[in-house]
Write a structure and sequence with these properties.
This protein is about 70% helix and about 0% strand. Helix 1 crosses helix 3 and helix 2 crosses helix 5.
Length: about 80
């Protein structure tokens, strides 16, 4: 699965409030990539949800993180996988 799709799933998993806060910190190029990927999501299988969540946890994500720290983890995933572009 491409990193941008994982990021889109992750944003749906963290919820609207936190997702909006993180997106507000993103630059325009990141938003232009993320929003279409989120729109393409229809059904996300529970197994995919668990896999994406676990990958973010493995990267250091904790639900108590603030928006800036959460964005750092998202950016790390995207840069690590080189699937952003």
């Amino acid at each position: 699965m491409m990193a941008i799709k994982k990021a889109a799933i992750f944003f749906l998993l963290i919820g609207d409030d936190k997702g909006r806060k993180v997106i507000s910190l993103m630059d325009d190029a990141e938003i232009k990539q993320l929003v279409p990927a989120m729109r393409e999501l229809t059904t996300i299988a529970p197994v995919q949800q668990r896999q994406v969540w676990q990958e973010f946890v493995d990267l250091g994500y904790e639900p108590s993180m603030n928006a800036a720290d959460t964005l750092t983890v998202v950016r790390f995933l995207l840069s690590r996988n080189r699937k952003w572009e």
